[in-house]
Each structure stands twice: as structure tokens, then as C-alpha cells.
Design a protein that fits this description.
Helices cover about 30% and strands about 25% of the residues. It has about 425 residues and is α/β, with parallel strands linked by helices. It has two domains: about 210 residues, UDP-n-acetylglucosamine1-carboxyvinyl-transferase, Chain (Alpha-beta prism), CATH 3.65.10.10; about 210 residues, UDP-n-acetylglucosamine1-carboxyvinyl-transferase, Chain (Alpha-beta prism). It has a four-stranded mixed beta sheet with strand order 22-23-1-24. The chain starts with a strand and ends in a 13-residue tail after the last strand. Bound molecules: uridine-diphosphate-N-acetylglucosamine.
């Protein structure tokens, strides 16, 4: 079992470059399974979730050729099965995109229920309702006998679909299923996250006809053939970029986060400015710093679908609020149980109480090193951030959860001056129980 060991207290300095977006590439890999020919994907991050998805795609029959430097040739021509039942399907959330992709390709799909971070109920009813509007029938989600979803359609026909909850996953999955359906599909109340636009752009560049991605109405005109044959570069990861911006802020450092899209960062930059940080935007970079001795102002956050403040930056932002002078509120509006990591921050000296979906953070707290657990991917990132400012040593167990979404995090932080190392430890030597999700 790997742990991260951090000695905190060093202001981060310098530059850090953001990797390709985890959530975009996972959707795009599933989308690549729809193509009639090969494509080249660039800026693919080397993270555990991507490796799992590549392995799952290979078991379907796709030929994946790494070309070096985060570039892969993906050739789905020989995919011969509609069954995504590899054990790793259960490890990652985004495997659910294979349902839409395989349904589109074979008019049938069989898949284990997806896994991923555990922060409350994570239904996929909207995905299945969307498929059924397109003409598919199958598993009643309330009766998953063996945890396997089976769907089938004689024909997929375009339809008008209204999502009663704004869902990233359902929007992309329905888009995938509709790409080769007969006629026009309209998704109303669609999610608008940057990676939805990226999946649509990828499909369009390979021959699809999708309009309106990034707005709340997406129109997909089904096409019979998706030739592929082109290269596509994945957008930068909004959440990784935000995590490093918060790292700069928490350590009162001076860091330029490069290779990001400033527009995607607006929900965070607005809040950092409100807290007293200095933000300098370039074309594809943001520098974060703060005047010496300036106190960090308390603020209130509410997580919302894009362009609101992303729930995937909620734990990291809560860690930052611990350093603000006064009372701040963090309202988690997307997931019903995403405060499990608060107990870990409390172990490090944070003063936080949770009432329902609101965390009340009183600061400033002087965080101290402790043995803590990465309860999930972004919770783990919050522990790293807290460790960077804590006095003494912080040991974060279940580090594999952080590896799911952060490429070379140790190397990137070390290059900015942090004292962080990854250590292989015997599970029995961990002083806190490991929570499996
Ligand atoms: C995606 C992200 C995840 C992020 C989340 C919200 C990926 C792989 N994961 O997850 O990191 O936290 O968006 O930005 O991209 N809902 C339903 N029925 C459904 C689907 C969702 O009620 O069928 C509800 C959920 O319970 C939740 C809300 O919709 O309250 C948003 O979920 P959704 O946007 O679907 O999240 P994911 O796509 O799973």
C-alpha cells in the first residue's frame, strides 16, 4: 500500500503544468469505441482511471497503441463484444459511458454497475431513461439481480429527452447513444461541463453531428458512419488546475499554473479574489499569490453544476477555508454525502461542524501533521493540501485513490518546493483503518 508523506510549511513557488482532463478522456475513450476507424488521442493523462479504462477497452477488442508522451492510437475496428464485464468496470465511475457507446454500436450492451468515489447515492436512472426514449429496453434498475445491466434495442431512434436533474454522466451517455441513432435527438436541461463540450468536439471531429454542447440544449443528428481517422487533443483538467491554484493559495506561495483554460477556472478565481488572493490571468495560465501578512477572508461556497463552483473542488476549497479568518460556509449542493473527509481535517486541527449539506468552517486553524486517510479521490487531494501547510509530518494512506486522478502529483509538487514523497508501506503498519469504497 502506498502512502504520501508530507512535511508542511513551505510556500510553493514556480510553475506547474496541468495534464489532460480525467473526466474528458474517460468519456472520449468510450466515444472512440463508436468509431469505424482508428483515431489518435493526445494529452492523455497517465492516471489509474485512464489505465483501467484502456484495459477495459482492450478486453472489448480495441487495439490500443501507446505512441509516447501521452499519445495513444485507439483502433476499435475489431471490437466484437457488447459485454463490458471486466472486473475494472466496477472500479471506475466513467465505465458507465460504455453502456451508451456499446448500445450505439451493437444495439445492445451488458455491463457491471460502475464503481467510483463513494459520496452518496450515485444513481444512473437518468441514463437508462434516456436510452429507453431512444428505443432501448432492459434492466429495471430497481432489480439488478447480479449487479449487471443489460439493455437492448431493435433500432435506436432520435427523441426529445428532458433531464429532470442536471447530470454530467447522463448527458454524455445519451449523446453517445444518439450519435448513430436514426434522426434527431434533443437533450434539454443538459449539463454544460467543459468535458461535455470536449466529448462532443471529439465526436464531431470524427464525423458526428452534435450541436449546442456547452449550452443546456444539445442537438444530435444521428449519422450512419463515424470514419475516425483524425488526431484529437484532450482539454486540460479543470479540477487538477484548481487543486494547484488552491495549493498556491494555502501555502501563501507564488505559483503560475500553466496549460489551463482560464474561462473554466472562473468559479474558483472569483472566490480566491474574494478571499484576498492576487490572481493574474494569461492566455493559458493563472498566477496565484497573496501579499505578505494579508489575512485570508472567510467566504461562502455553494457547489453547482457548471458554470457554478464544481463539487470536485469542494474538499480542496474546504481545506483552504480552514485558513480563513472567521466563519465560512461550504454548501454541498450536488452530492448527498460528500463530507466524509471532514473527520480527517479535524484530526489535523480543523474547526469544522457539519449540519446537513453545509460545513461550517471556523478559522484560522493551525493545522498539524497527522495520519489521515484519502477517503476518496478529491478528499485525498484535500489531505495533500492540508499536509502542505501543516506543521510536522502528515501521512496519507490509501494514496491509490489520489493516483486515480492526479498525474505525477509528487513530482509536480516537489518541483514547486514541497516536501512530499510516496512510500510503499505494509498495510498492517497503517495506524488508521483503511476505508474501502
Ligand atoms: C460526474 C463526475 C464527478 C462529478 C459529477 C458532478 C465523471 C466521471 N464524474 O459524475 O467527478 O462529481 O459529475 O460534477 O465525469 N443523478 C441522478 N440520476 C442519474 C444521474 C445523476 O439523480 O441518473 C444525480 C446524482 O445523484 C447527483 C447529480 O445528479 O446528485 C449529479 O450527478 P452527475 O452529474 O450525473 O455525476 P456523475 O456523472 O456521476
Amino acid at each position: 500500500m502506498s502512502v504520501y508523506k508530507i512535511h508542511g510549511g513551505i510556500p510553493l513557488q514556480g510553475e506547474v503544468s496541468v495534464s489532460g482532463s480525467k473526466n474528458a478522456v474517460l468519456g472520449i475513450l468510450a466515444a472512440a469505441m463508436l468509431l469505424d476507424g482508428a483515431c489518435i488521442l493526445e494529452n492523455v493523462p497517465d492516471i489509474a482511471d485512464v489505465q483501467a479504462m484502456l484495459e477495459i477497452c482492450e478486453t472489448l477488442g480495441a487495439i490500443i497503441t501507446p505512441l509516447g508522451g501521452g499519445t495513444y492510437k485507439i483502433d476499435p475496428t475489431n471490437i466484437s463484444t457488447h459485454e463490458a464485464t471486466h472486473a475494472k468496470v466496477k472500479n471506475i465511475r466513467a465505465s458507465y459511458y460504455l453502456l451508451g457507446a456499446l448500445l450505439s454500436r451493437f444495439k445492445k450492451a451488458t455491463m457491471h454497475m460502475p464503481g467510483g468515489c463513494n459520496f452518496g447515492t450515485r444513481p444512473i436512472d437518468l441514463h437508462l431513461k434516456g436510452f429507453s426514449k431512444l428505443g432501448a429496453r432492459g434492466t429495471d434498475i430497481s432489480d439488478l439481480r447480479d449487479g449487471t445491466i443489460r439493455i437492448v434495442a431493435d433500432k435506436l431512434r432520435g427523441a426529445h429527452i428532458f433531464l429532470d436533474v442536471v447530470s454530467v454522466g447522463a448527458t454524455i451517455n445519451i449523446m453517445l447513444a444518439a450519435t448513430r441513432a436514426d434522426g434527431l435527438t434533443t437533450i434539454e436541461n443538459a449539463a454544460k461541463e467543459p468535458h461535455i463540450v470536449d466529448v462532443a468536439n471529439f465526436l464531431n471531429s470524427m464525423g458526428a453531428n452534435i450541436k449546442g454542447a456547452g449550452t443546456d440544449t444539445i442537438r444530435i443528428k444521428g449519422v450512419p458512419v463515424l470514419p475516425g481517422g483524425y488526431s484529437y487533443s484532450i482539454i486540460p483538467d479543470q479540477i487538477e488546475a484548481g487543486t494547484y491554484m488552491i495549493a498556491a493559495a494555502m501555502t501563501r506561495g507564488d505559483v503560475t499554473v500553466k496549460n489551463l483554460i482560464p474561462k473554466h477556472m472562473e468559479p474558483l478565481t472569483a472566490k480566491l479574489m474574494e478571499m484576498g488572493f492576487d490572481i493574474f490571468e494569461g492566455d493559458d495560465s493563472i498566477r496565484v499569490t497573496i501579499e505578505e501578512c494579508r489575512p485570508i477572508e472567510p467566504v461562502n461556497f455553494k457547489t453547482m453544476p457548471y458554470p457554478g463552483f464544481p463539487t470536485d473542488l469542494q474538499p480542496q476549497a474546504t481545506a483552504l477555508l480552514c485558513l480563513a479568518k472567521g466563519m465560512s460556509r461550504m454548501h454541498e449542493n450536488v452530492w448527498d454525502n460528500r463530507f466524509q473527509y471532514i473527520s480527517e481535517l479535524q484530526t489535523m486541527g480543523a474547526n469544522i461542524s457539519v449540519i446537513g449539506r453545509v460545513a461550517l468552517v471556523s478559522g484560522p486553524s493551525f493545522l498539524h501533521g497527522a495520519n489521515v486517510v484519502a477517503m476518496d479521490l478529491r478528499a485525498g487531494a484535500a489531505m495533500v493540501l492540508a499536509g502542505l501547510v501543516a506543521t510536522g509530518e502528515t501521512i496519507i494512506s490509501s494514496a491509490y485513490r489520489i493516483d486515480r486522478g492526479y498525474e505525477h502529483i509528487v513530482e509536480k509538487l516537489t518541483a514547486m518546493g514541497a516536501q512530499i514523497e510516496r512510500v510503499e508501506e505494509d498495510a498492517s503498519s497503517c495506524q488508521r483503518p483503511l476505508v474501502e469504497v
